[in-house]
Amino acid sequence: MTTFENPHLIYAPIAGRAELTRLIAAAGGITITESVNVANLGKPDLLETGESKKNYMSPSGMPLLQHGDLKISQSGAIEAYMASIAPRYKDLTPQQRAIDMMFMGIKEEIGQNCGKAIFTTQKADKNKAIEDVCALFDKWGAVFEDQIPTEGFIQGLPYPTPADLALLDITTSYMPIGCARKLAQYDFGKWKKVVALCDRVKADEHVNKYLSERKYADANPWGM
To answer: What residues contact residue 175 under an 8 Å CB cut-off, 6+ apart?
Structure first.
């Protein structure tokens, strides 16, 4: 059995449910390795090794994470684990970690609804898919604009935490959220405070380095 000294992420070569994990690792000071294969989506076993995804408590879904003897699934659990071992985030309080996890959950909710719109709803009714996407973005945009700070970062720290990174993921990753935004021709620019916050996140040294090198945020293997 292969074990990994560094956290090893298993997913497809897209942003999807793994890009926030990548961002947390980069911003938090963790080096990760990855296996990426779009053909593994929806399969019960990993094609490269034949290993069952049940070993990660998953019937077929991804992302998956292995770190030493630890094997887990579910993006929220993987993101939270990554944040918990990141050197930069070692002093976060339970309350701060709860805030980060809340934003992780919001990102996941938005992503799932965008995936439904682009992969399912638009096949039957494109106009309904566009309507759903616009309503989704308007709903969450109003909350973000009301609650996030006009200066600094969400947690009031001198560096971005996963809460800030979740908003960066929402607004810059293509599949599925950016694809849904494209379908609906939705302008994230109307989220003035979110745009300003994301600009501050992008200026962080660790995040900026990752953004200059990241491979999968714009990936669109299905040509959508």
So the answer is: 14, 15, 16, 219, 220, 222, 224
Mark residue 60 as left, alpha or beta (left: phi above 0; alpha: psi -120 to 50; beta: remaining): alpha
Contact 91, 85 (CB under 8 A): no
Write out 109-153 in H/E/C secondary structure.
Answer: HHHHHHHHHHHHHHHHCHHHHHHHHHHHHHHHHHHHHHHCCCCCC
Q: Are 171 and 107 in contact (CB under 8 A)?
A: no
- Sequential pLDDT tens for the chain (224 residues): 566 689 999 999 999 999 999 999 999 999 999 999 999 999 999 999 999 999 999 999 999 999 999 999 999 999 999 999 999 999 999 999 999 999 999 999 999 999 999 999 999 999 999 999 999 999 999 999 999 999 999 999 999 999 999 999 999 999 999 999 999 999 999 999 999 999 999 999 999 999 999 999 999 999 99
Q: Indicate the helix (H) or strand (E) that contains 25.
A: helix 19-28
CA distance to 36, 118, 224, per residue, from 124 (Å) = 31, 10, 16
Cα-Cα-Cα-Cα dihedral sign, residues 106, 107, 111, 112: negative
Element (H, E) at 70: strand 70-73
Q: How far is CA 153 from CA 40, 164, 167, 201, 205, in A?
A: 36, 7, 11, 8, 14
Chain centre distance of CA 31: 17
